[in-house]
Every structure is written in structure tokens, then in C-alpha cells.
């Protein structure tokens, strides 16, 4: 088979060149040739495609030595064969030293086939060798330049070669690493079983991939990921291992930090009091795509079931859906919105939610996502309702107190004159009966005003240290007479019950009102349970109950199994005159009175009720740790005496002042009148003998009865006083609780009560005086 051969012939004789070509063809080659005989043409003809060069040794304008020199200078790879008729042995040797591949004498061209084939073969071998060497060189450079550490070991694991990256990674020089076993870097972070399994994998011919912690030369630990590949010989025997290593210490640290951050985020979300969610735009509307898992704890739903268009709206209370949807315009316009609505819990109940959203836009300003927070505000809503109810009752109480105050002034006049008329012996039977009816009606009206004052917390208390168990025991005796046979009574007394500082009569009224209310709630019979206990109230309770305060309390619990209170009625049960009973079966002041008494004792009351199951009233009174001395309160049965002492009467109501003056003058007292505290001071004569001051508490002019007595006692320290008012505690505060040395006459009062109180004070009877 003819062999193509790109040939350049350097020959001054064209005939010799032709003979050379003929010889090549005879040897089985198909030369593609060109003849040159000058240096210039020779250099011009050199190109990378040439496979062989033939050159005469001696020429007129050129020489074989010069040809060889040019080839060396240009690092030309093609073999050059000297073809000459006159070359001597020395010249042959010299030409071979200069780079000639071989030589042929012109008259022996029959050798050309052998010489050419050998030259071409040797050229190919040289090319293959250089190519292989270049590949090795490039591979070595690549391995040295690789960012990953690379090790080559023998079958036993001894390191034969390592690159620079390995040295940088470990801190060991290449000299220290070569001939060492990789185990010198072990950190004891992996077990012996780990290394045995690794070696078994490699010796079985499998590639091993994994990570491990090793030790640098400086003793620090680092984590590396690696791939170890077995290398096989021609006989398929494993002879070497190549390990490619990557230092992933920073990546591992970042991964650990990221994992910790994720765990922290998951932990925060799991314990967050709010649900976080994401909405993405879908066909013009926003669709939930992610909801935090804590929705399960807060609302009872799995996160995945909430992701879907329409699901959330379906669970919003029907009355609130329009509100929930109405804020989308605000969201798109302002970039945020906040709304509150009722949402159905998985248990079927509705919870109040605060839904706050923030709009996220892309670089072009187009809306792409909404991030929102759902917060359960049911407890806050409940506290707000409690606060509104307390404010409402406070306002009603202020109104009730004001009405009762004015009404008491009127009743004082009515009762007083009725008493004076009844003491008139010249009055006939018929007029006397009418006056008695007037007195009875005014007494019933006075009872009503006392209830109003109790609700408004303006009723004067007579507090002392009490055992609530004793109060309950006293009331039980009365309860047994008013409870029907179909209502069973059970009392649970707490042993070692703490003491309270309270008005015994008021506490009895609280229990009686609650018990009667419970009885009426069980028209078909049931059970009434009264329980006392000590309870410690902490901050958690106070957060849920606006009226409460941390501390120790005695709790009175009244439970019935009656009809229960409807939810729509429950917020109004403590309002004065509010009742669900038929006309004529209640005044609507029973629970209002309870509310006022409890709050006047610095306590509070909680109600729990379920329809057809019953109602529980829990009443809290603060514990008193230091028992106080009980005031003596001897009962006086003797007739009321009069006297000749001088009394300063200070009262702004003309009718009340006239009545009081008349009663006192009938008893023999001298009376000095003043319509206000300011007038009393203006008319005060330090030289005049005044034995007692009878003063109203609230009067025009900006000065109260207490203010007046402070001024008068500065001049006359021993001057006693009696305070009167339709309400007084509201004005003077907690310091006006009845105690020794404080004398108070509650309006409305009758002539006998007025006279008795005046006499007791003038006679220095050491007890608080209350006529109510």
C-alpha cells in the first residue's frame, strides 16, 4: 500500500532530485515534494506538515551543514537525511552530530527504503515520547496547581507523592509527607472500625467517598471530604491509591452555624405566640404558600392543610369576612395592613386574631409576596371587654352615688319631720297612721339608697378582722330557712383559713345575695355549694384578669346547678336595676350590691356560667396577716338624754340644717348655724365656747368637712366632730374607715339617731358611731 509522504528536497541538481523521487516511489512511497537550492527558499518551504527532508551535503549556494543548523535553530521536528555523492567519513560523523537522522550515498539509493522507514519510525517514536512527556508535564502541573489536596500511595498506604495543596492543607512539607503513612494525621475522631471498613472497601476495588476529621501539623483539627480511587495494573491487580481531598472545615462550620440558626428559627417559630405566613401572587390574588408549623399548637391545624386558596377565608367568622377582605386595597396601596377578626379554631370555637401584613415588591415595584403575622388576641379582647365593663360600672356607680347622696338629703328631712310628727301627742289616729306610712316608705327608700351607695363603693364600712368560715356559718342558719326542699346545700370549709379585714354585715349580705340568686336560678331544684379556700394569685392570672392583683386571697365560691346565664346577659349582671326576673320579683340591685361590696373591700369577683349546667361565682378578698384590735361596741339601751352644750352645725342643705337645728334645740342644745365650711371659719370665734361640730362632708366653696376640722383643731385640738353625708368614703378615701375617734352619721338619719350620736360624742364614749 502506497504511503503518502510530504517531502522537501534540498538539491542543486534537478536530475538528482528526480532520481531521489523515483527511488522513493520504488520504495512504496507517494512523495508530495518540492526542490530548493538556496537558504532563502529552504526557510520559505519549511512548514509543520513536512514529514521528511533530503539534503545534498555540498552545493554551490548552500550546504548540508547549514540545513542542519537552520533545523536546529527552528526546532524543526521532521527527520533530515543527507544524500550526497562526495561525502567522506568525517563529514558523515559531523553531520550526524549536527542532527542528521541518517545518510545515503547517491549511488546507493537502493538503501533509501530502509533508511526512510527507519527515520519515519524513529520520528514517530520521538513524537510519541515528547507527547507523553508533555502530557506528564501538563498533568504534573495540573496536579500541583489543583485546589484540592492529592495523594498517591502504594497498596500498603505509604505516600509516594503529594501536591502543594495537600501541604497547604496539612502544614506538612512534601518531604515530610512522602514515605509516611496517612495515619500520621489521624485525630482519634474516627474509630478503628471506620478505618478498617475504609480499607476493606478500597481493597475490594471500590471507590471510597466520605469525610473525616484529621489533624494538621500544628495540632489543629480540620474536616476533609475525599474520594479514594484504587489504581490497577495491566494484570488487574491493585497497585496504588489516589486520594483527592478537600478541606471543608469552613463549609462544615458554616453548615453547623446554618443548622443552629435553622434550629433556633424552628424553635422560635415553634414557641412563638404568633403564626408567620407567606402569600404569593397567583392570577391577580394572593395565595398562601407557606405557614409556620406552630399553627398546630395555636389553632389546631396542620400547616400543609392551610396552604390553599380560599381555606383561610372559609375559617373566618362569616360576619368578619368582608372586613378581612376589605384591607387588600390598603395593602396594595400602602404596603401594609392590620385587621382583627374572629377565626375558627380546629376545635370549633372562634378566636380573635390580629392579622398584620407587609407587601414585598420586586425591583420593578410590582407586588410579588406578602409576609404576614397572625396573633391570637382573644385574651386581649377579653381584657378590653373587662376594662370597658369596669369603666361602665364605675360610671354607673358614680351616677348612683350622686343620686343616692341627693336623695339621702331629701330622706333626712322626710324621716326627721315624720319622727317629729309621730312624737306629737296631739296628733289624731288617722293623721298618725299617715305619718307612720310616710316613715315606713322613707325607710324603704333609705334602704334602696344604701344599696346604691354599696354598689358605688360609697357606703361606710365597719371593718374588723374576720374568719370567713364564721361568716359563712352565720349565713347558713338563715339560708336553711329560705331554701326550698328541692335545693340541697353543701358547704366546704377550708381548714386554717386566713383572716380578712372586712365588714361582717357586708360579707353576710354578699353571701346571702349570691345564695338567693342561685336558688332562683334552680326553679326545678338542684345543688348549692358554698366553698372557702386560700388562694395565691400570680402574675399569670393577673395578665388574664384585669381586676386581679398578685397576692394572697381568701376565696368564697358559690356554685349552683341551675339554668346558667346566657352569654349576651353575662356582661350586664352587675349593672344596677338590671334583672331578667319577672316584674315584681327583684329590684336588680342584688348583684350590683355584691359587686360594690367586694370592690369596696379591695377584692374582685369572677363569674363562670354554662347554659343548663350552672353558674360559679368566685369572690376574692385580700388576706390580712396582722390582726388588729377590735373596737368596743357596747349596746346602749337607755333613753337619749339632751344637754346644754353649744354645737356648731355646718350643712349646705337648708331643709336638713333646719331639721337638725330643731331636733338639737328640742334636746336643750345651743346651735350655731353655717351653710358652708368657709362661713363656719369666717364666723368662728376662738373665744366662744363650742363643744361639738356637726358638719356635712361635701359642701360648696371647695372645702370639705375634714378640711374644716383640720383648721378648727389647729386652734382647738380637743374639739370633737360628727361627720354626715349621703356618701363620704368616695371623698376621704380609705382613711375614713370607721375606727376609734371617727364619728360618722350616715344620711338619712332620724331625730333619735342624731340625738344619740351627739350625746355619745359629747360624753366621750370611745366607739365609732354609725347611724345608717
Describe this structure in words.
There is one protein chain. By secondary structure, this protein is of the alpha/beta class. The protein folds into five domains: 133 residues, Response regulator (Rossmann fold, 3-Layer(aba) Sandwich); 108 residues, Beta-Lactamase; 105 residues, PAS domain (Beta-Lactamase, 2-Layer Sandwich); 159 residues, Heat Shock Protein 90 (2-Layer Sandwich); 126 residues, Response regulator (Rossmann fold, 3-Layer(aba) Sandwich). The protein has 25 helices and 28 strands. The strands form six sheets. It has a six-stranded parallel sheet, with helices on both faces. Strands 2-1-3-4-5 form a five-stranded parallel sheet, sandwiched between helices. A five-stranded antiparallel sheet has the order 7-6-10-9-8, sandwiched between helices. The C terminus is likely disordered.
CATH superfamily of the largest domain: Histidine kinase-like ATPase, C-terminal domain
Radius of gyration: 58 Å
Residue fraction in strands: 25-35%
Q: What composes the largest sheet?
A: 6 strands, parallel
Mean pLDDT: 83
Number of E-type strands: 28
CATH architectural name of the largest domain: 2-Layer Sandwich
Strand order of the largest sheet: 24-23-25-26-27-28
The number of domains: 5
Can you tell me the residue ranges where pLDDT is under 50 for at least 5 consecutive residues? Answer: 629-637, 728-735, 766-772
| Terminus-to-terminus distance | 144 Å
| Helical content class | 40-55%
Helix run count? 25
The name of the CATH topology of the largest domain is Heat Shock Protein 90
**Structural class, from secondary structure content?**
alpha/beta
Which shape, going by the Cα principal axes?
rod-shaped
CATH first level of the largest domain: Alpha Beta
Amino acid at each position: 500500500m502506497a504511503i503518502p509522504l510530504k517531502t522537501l528536497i534540498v538539491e542543486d541538481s534537478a536530475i538528482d532530485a528526480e532520481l531521489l523521487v523515483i527511488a522513493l516511489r520504488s520504495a512504496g512511497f507517494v512523495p508530495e515534494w518540492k526542490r530548493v537550492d538556496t537558504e532563502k527558499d529552504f526557510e520559505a518551504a519549511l512548514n509543520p506538515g513536512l514529514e521528511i527532508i533530503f539534503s545534498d551535503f555540498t552545493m554551490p549556494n548552500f550546504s548540508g551543514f547549514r540545513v542542519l543548523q537552520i533545523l536546529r535553530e527552528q526546532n524543526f521536528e521532521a527527520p533530515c537525511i543527507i544524500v550526497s555523492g562526495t561525502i567522506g567519513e568525517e563529514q558523515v560523523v559531523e553531520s550526524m552530530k549536527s542532527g542528521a537522522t541518517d545518510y545515503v550515498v547517491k549511488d546507493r539509493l537502493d538503501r533509501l527504503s530502509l533508511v526512510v522507514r527507519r527515520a519515519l519510525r524513529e520520528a514517530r517514536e520521538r513524537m510519541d515520547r515528547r507527547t507523553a512527556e508533555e502530557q506528564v508535564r501538563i498533568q504534573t502541573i495540573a496536579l500541583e496547581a489543583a485546589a484540592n489536596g492529592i495523594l498517591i500511595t502504594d497498596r500498603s498506604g505509604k505516600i509516594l507523592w503529594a501536591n502543594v495543596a495537600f501541604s497547604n492543607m496539612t502544614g506538612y512539607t512534601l518531604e515530610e509527607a512522602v514515605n509516611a503513612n496517612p495515619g500520621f494525621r489521624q485525630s482519634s475522631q474516627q474509630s478503628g472500625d471506620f478505618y478498617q471498613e475504609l480499607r476493606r472497601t478500597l481493597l475490594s476495588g471500590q471507590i471510597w467517598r466520605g469525610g473525616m476529621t484529621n489533624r494538621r501539623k500544628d495540632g489543629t483539627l480540620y474536616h476533609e471530604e475525599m474520594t479514594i480511587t484504587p489504581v490497577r495494573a495491566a494484570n488487574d491487580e491493585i497497585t496504588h491509591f489516589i486520594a483527592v481531598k478537600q478541606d471543608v472545615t469552613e463549609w462544615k462550620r458554616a453548615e453547623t452555624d446554618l443548622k443552629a440558626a435553622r434550629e433556633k428559627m424552628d424553635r422560635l417559630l415553634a414557641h412563638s405566640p404568633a403564626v408567620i405566613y407567606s402569600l404569593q401572587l397567583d392570577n391577580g390574588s394572593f395565595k398562601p404558600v407557606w405557614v409556620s408549623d406552630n399553627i398546630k399548637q395555636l389553632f389546631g391545624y396542620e400547616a400543609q392543610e392551610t396552604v390553599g386558596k380560599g381555606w383561610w377565608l372559609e375559617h373566618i367568622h362569616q360576619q368578619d369576612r368582608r372586613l378581612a377582605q376589605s384591607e387588600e386595597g390598603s395593602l396594595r396601596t400602602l404596603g401594609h395592613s392590620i385587621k382583627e377578626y374572629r377565626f375558627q379554631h380546629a376545635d370549633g370555637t372562634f378566636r380573635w386574631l390580629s392579622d398584620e401584613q407587609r407587601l414585598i415588591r420586586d425591583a420593578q415595584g410590582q407586588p410579588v409576596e406578602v409576609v404576614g403575622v397572625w396573633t391570637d388576641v382573644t385574651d386581649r379582647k377579653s381584657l378590653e371587654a373587662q376594662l370597658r365593663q369596669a369603666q361602665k360600672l364605675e360610671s354607673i356607680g358614680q351616677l348612683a352615688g350622686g343620686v343616692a347622696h341627693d336623695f339621702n338629703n331629701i330622706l333626712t328631712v322626710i324621716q326627721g319631720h315624720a319622727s317629729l310628727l309621730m312624737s306629737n301627742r296631739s296628733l289624731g289616729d288617722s293623721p298618725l297612721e299617715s305619718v307612720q306610712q310616710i316613715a315606713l316608705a322613707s325607710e324603704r327608700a333609705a334602704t334602696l339608697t344604701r344599696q346604691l351607695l354599696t354598689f358605688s363603693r360609697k357606703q361606710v364600712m365597719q371593718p374588723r378582722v374576720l374568719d370567713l368560715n364564721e361568716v359563712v356559718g352565720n349565713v347558713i342558719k338563715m339560708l336553711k330557712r329560705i331554701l326550698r326542699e328541692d335545693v340541697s346545700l353543701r358547704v366546704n370549709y377550708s381548714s386554717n383559713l386566713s383572716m380578712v379585714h372586712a365588714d361582717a354585715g357586708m360579707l353576710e349580705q354578699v353571701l346571702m345575695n349570691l345564695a338567693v340568686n342561685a336558688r332562683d336560678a334552680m326553679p326545678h331544684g338542684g345543688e348549692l355549694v358554698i366553698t372557702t379556700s386560700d388562694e395565691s394569685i400570680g402574675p399569670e392570672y393577673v395578665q388574664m384578669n384585669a381586676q386581679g392583683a398578685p397576692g394572697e386571697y381568701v376565696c368564697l365560691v358559690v356554685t349552683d346547678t341551675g339554668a346558667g346565664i346566657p352569654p349576651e346577659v353575662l356582661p350586664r349582671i352587675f349593672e344596677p336595676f338590671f334583672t331578667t326576673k319577672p316584674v315584681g320579683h327583684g329590684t336588680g340591685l342584688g348583684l350590683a350590691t355584691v359587686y360594690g361590696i367586694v370592690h369596696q373591700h379591695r377584692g374582685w369577683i369572677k363569674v363562670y356560667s354554662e347554659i343548663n349546667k350552672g353558674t360559679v361565682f368566685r369572690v376574692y378578698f385580700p388576706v390580712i396577716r396582722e390582726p388588729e384590735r377590735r373596737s368596743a361596741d357596747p349596746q346602749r339601751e337607755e333613753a337619749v338624754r339632751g344637754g346644754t352644750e353649744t354645737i356648731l352645725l355646718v350643712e349646705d342643705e337648708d331643709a336638713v340644717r333646719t331639721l337638725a337645728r330643731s331636733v338639737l334645740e328640742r334636746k336643750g342644745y345651743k346651735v350655731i348655724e353655717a351653710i358652708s365650711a368657709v362661713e363656719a371659719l369666717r364666723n368662728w370665734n376662738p373665744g366662744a365656747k363650742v363643744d361639738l361640730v356637726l358638719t356635712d362632708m361635701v359642701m360648696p366653696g371647695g372645702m370639705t368637712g375634714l378640711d374644716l376640722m383640720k383648721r378648727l383643731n389647729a386652734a382647738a385640738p380637743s374639739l370633737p366632730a360628727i361627720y354626715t353625708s349621703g356618701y363620704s368614703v368616695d371623698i376621704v378615701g380609705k382613711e375614713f374607715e370607721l375606727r376609734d375617734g371617727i364619728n360618722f352619721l350616715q344620711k338619712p338619719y332620724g331625730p333619735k339617731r342624731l340625738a344619740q350620736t351627739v350625746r355619745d360624742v359629747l360624753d366621750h364614749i370611745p366607739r365609732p358611731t354609725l347611724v345608717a
